[in-house]
């Protein structure tokens, strides 16, 4: 088997010289420099033009592996990303505005009901008379004064319930959460509980209860 040879240029001619085993083939650098460097085992060294093109167009796979945005390296796509973010945020802002309006409307409606309902609850006799008139019941409480504490309790519950609802709704709105359901659910719950308190003296009076049952028949 013949020994590898090394080729060097001399006066436009090529001279073949034997190359020892284990040595790397050397070639001169461009531009006539005399310094020699090892020849790569596979392929060839990149030219200066190829190196500059490589620097201007970085490897996208390497950028993605390091968590960088390839589009951010170019000036134009950055504006596109900002525009897309603004476009996505627009429906969220509209949704928050609608939620805020609905929440405030429900709170105002609840406040009106509380303010107009509390005087009737405090004057429990008048409240019972109105209820009996609506039901078509011809009866009176045996002890009208016994129902007054229950009317006060119902009125106090409604007032405290509205204040608590308004506070929770305000905190939820500040955190950017969906809030309209808070005054809706709270209004149903507090109205139901206050109604039960107002009915306790009525169902506790046997005479009134029997009159209601007779009317129902």
UniProtKB/TrEMBL annotation:
InterPro entries: DUF6264. Coiled coil: none annotated. It comes from the Bacteria. The chain crosses the membrane at residues 101-122, 150-168, 180-203. The keyword Transmembrane applies. Residues 1-58 are annotated as: Disordered. The keyword Iron does not apply. Keywords: Membrane, Transmembrane, Transmembrane helix. Residues 1-38 have a biased composition (Basic and acidic residues). This is DUF6264 family protein. It comes from Microbacterium terregens.
